[in-house]
Amino acid sequence: MNDFTLFDPMSSAVRSTLIIVAVLSIFFIIVGMKIKKLDPKKTPKGFLFGCIMIVDGFNTFISEYMDKDKFKFFGAYLFTIIVFLGTANTISLIGLKPPLSNLGVALAFTVMTFLAIKIAEFKFISVKKKINNLLGEVKFMAPILFPINLIGEVSTPFTMGLRLFVNLLSGVVIATMVYSVLSFSVGFLQGLSGIFAGMFLHAIFDIFFGLIQAFVFLMLTTINISLATDA
User: Do the Cβ atoms of 102 and 144 come closer than 8 Å?
Assistant: First the structure.
């Protein structure tokens, strides 16, 4: 079972997070060093070619939702998000606890998203314009609109982080309920149903739903950064 703890700093989910960060860091460093050594006059082959195509496809996709300056500044961060979440949400396939099964890890993404949005605002729009947006267009309504808008500034990234945790929790609960029902099966049917149901559930909850949630979080982050800087 997954442990949905908040204050245990070295829970199994946190250890999984550290393992993922270490492995991905080493992987990116090695790939980066190999790409630097490539001859620009020659077409890369094999594994490096695949890596370049993935990054190029990501850049092309995200650039449709951000202008060039914003993408240049946030592109690496957004790519890191999708790679980390895609790995984290499917890590249970090799026996590790999903990092997002820990509420503290999930809410850490709230903090990162909040900071990313604020950095985008300070970099691409003026502080004066941001304050005016918080006060609203109707100045005499500012005492009412300001606290409402201020709550909205915090609630958006908070709900995004909470969404990651709740979706993973709901998937685990549903899978557990199905396994419990299958445990009442008997004889030959029990063996077959357990095997095929297990394969089916893992394919859905560990791969499909995990990758979908990673993609949804990426798009929400991208859109919120774009909206914040277009305000």
Answer: no
pLDDT digits (tens, 9 = 90+) for 165-179: 777 666 666 666 666
**Nearest one of 211, 223, 175, 203 to 100, comparing CA atoms:** 211
pLDDT, tens digit, 9 for 90 and up, residues 138-149: 666 767 777 777
Write out the DSSP string of 6-75: SS-TT-HHHHHHHHHHHHHHHHHHHHHHHHHTS-TTS---HHHHHHHHHHHHHHHHHTTTS-HHHHHHHH
Identity of the amino acid at 136: G
End-to-end CA distance of the chain: 44
What pLDDT, in 10s, does the model give residues 39-81? 777 777 788 888 888 888 898 888 888 888 888 888 888 899 8
CA torsion sign, 231 to 79 to 90 to 14?
negative
Residue 99 contacts residue 13 (beta carbons within 8 Å): yes
How many angstroms separate the CA atoms of 154 and 134, rounded?
Answer: 12
Which amino acid, residue 190?
A: Q
Helix/strand/coil (H/E/C) assignment for every residue in 134-153: HHCCCHHHHHHHHHHHHHHH
Q: Which residue has the tokens 């277009």?
A: 230
User: In the Cβ-directed half-sphere of 181, how many Cα atoms lie within 13 Å?
Assistant: 8
Structure token digits, residue 83: 């790679």
Provide CB contacts within 8 A for 88, sequence distance 6+.
16, 17, 20, 98, 99, 100, 210, 214
The amino acid present at 216, given as its one-letter code, is V
H or E element that contains 112 = helix 103-124
